[in-house]
Amino acid sequence: MDLNVIWDYFIEHLKEEDGIEEAQVKWSAGIPFIYIRSGKTKSDIEYSIKKWSAKAMRGKRLHSDTIFFRKEESLYVYRHRFFVPQEKMFCCGNLCVDCVRLKQ
Questions:
Q1: For residue 84, which of 2, 7, 24, 32 sits 20 to 30 Å off, Cα-Cα?
Q2: How far apart are CA 43 and CA 83, in angstroms?
Q3: pTM for this structure?
């Protein structure tokens, strides 16, 4: 799975959201930060981030995590990442108690 496709879809649709003037992702020390310039409230921006990240992840085994970082006038900065959940996804044959074959 190529996360660049997920990121591109997410940022592209976030830019098109009403009230968001600019949205971009910048990587610093391997950590992705979203820079959003908007006149919307913080809760409205977070709702938009949650909505578009959910749509970008639809049909894939991914999770997202968003943490508010800072605000400067109309520029909001969030630490946002898409990640694969850390759980067993296949049977290793060692008869583990949390084997995927035992899940309902």
A1: 24
A2: 23
A3: 0.80
